[in-house]
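Person: Show me a sequence?

Helper:
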Amino acid sequence: MAIHNNLLALGVLAFIGLNYLILKIYRHRSHVNRLRKQGVCITPGWSWVTGHLLVFARYARKFPRDITMAIVMNEMCLEFPKTETFIVDLWPFMNVAIMTYNAEAGLLVTSKYNLPKSPTTLDTVKAIAGGPNILTMNGSDWKYWRSLLNPGFSAASLVDHTSFIVDSVNVFCRALEEKAEKGIILLDDYAVKLTFDVIMKVVMDADINYQTSDHPFALALANTEAAPSVFEARKFNPLRPIREWYNGYKMQNFVTKSVKKRFEEMKLERLVSSNKKRTSQAKSVVGMTLDSYFNEMSSKQSLEGVELAPGFLNVVAYQTRMFLLAGNDTTSSTIVFIYNTIARNPEVAAQLRQEHETVFGPDVSTIGAQLKAKPALLNDCRYTLAVIKETLRLYPPVAINMRAGLPNVSIPTLDGDKVPTEGCSVMVQPYAMQINPRIWVRPKEFLPERWLVSSDHELYPPPNAYRPFDIGPRACIGQQLTLNEMRIVVIMTMRRFDIKPAYDEFDELARKNLGLLGKLKRGIVGEGIKTFDGDRAYQTVKTGTHPSDSYPCRIELLKG
């Protein structure tokens, strides 16, 4: 009897659950159907049962399995040249989405309307950041924290970090020298360690020397990835939440301990100082944030009574973790793609080397000292910056900018219609926008000169269509740091090394080292597509958009 009752209860629960699921599907698909009936442009092949999941899968099969979602979405964008804005329904993996690669619509989304960040944004990065941060916050919370964090990324603050960046790049160069002409290396791994050293110094004033030895925070971050995209197998791994929690605990513990220690140091400095100000200059992002906190709290109470509020500490830790991801991940991947574009365009390498010799002279060994003494020399390397900008155009490190729609807010399509955003996510597509053939001349060609020509030249970049760092009030807070760091890397390496991709050798070694199961799998499903637009170094679905297989390459030392 008891077994019968238990089975009956399970049956009732299953029935309720099934009906709830059906109701949820119906409500969601009804919303999409209403938009469709209103004449909103929608991706063909929509179904009440699967939405566009099967359609997306069909597009995805045209590309390597690990390619970034942005490139798959660009393929869908090509179907809508007359509107440049359309609906995609990938529920339950994401809310119904308005995709746009129209520059004017994108400007409305991120500037005029400044639509709030979607809750999905926090879901995507929560495993890494731990909680709300300036990437995910909205309203007054975002304004408060953005104003608090801005000083750490000011022009004056970044100049102070030039010497450390130069020293870090010198370590990077020594590592490349050690590996030169000795075999294949995975360049992305080296770039990640370089940029992590830099961002740890800028954000936390920590010298961790990750390029020469492992560090627990860096390892925890490396073992934690952003939420998987639509069809990644790891999305369904039951052990993923446990691993994310463990790595998140290690990261939060490290950051909170470091912030508490810095807080106590700064408090002591103020207590022993007669004017209640620091005896040393806080240069890190965390240091400047705590400095503002001291100023705010000591205006309300005595300095002796100022304590680090647990809520404030947690959010500082979330912000710090987000900066350590963003400042490391996007910069490192772009550095590697810069080398890849240079390798594919030898004439670019020649022009870079000529510019560097003109600005810094023939002796490569003096570049670091010159940059330390006069950081403004970076501004004399206009072609170097143009190469970086053009790389960011073709390889934007952020795949999608997602915002939440609002009632009574619509965005225009190219042909003049309006798309209501209420109940939808709005996804601005930087990659598709930055190669839109309607507004970019020779959009898929690597042409650094487009960033050097006058505004009346046909190559001159169209307004509001270049957004690797986003546009508007929420543009990337660290974009100048990233550009400075990348310029220093290119300037200090171009006349010392010749870096060439070695994918053919890498793939051949991988085939030779295949085990029995690997050979069986390859025999059944095939090797799969390995290039995009003829390039083996395509952007993948890692946390950022890193080069496939970490960019295997060979390093050659240059004479002179």
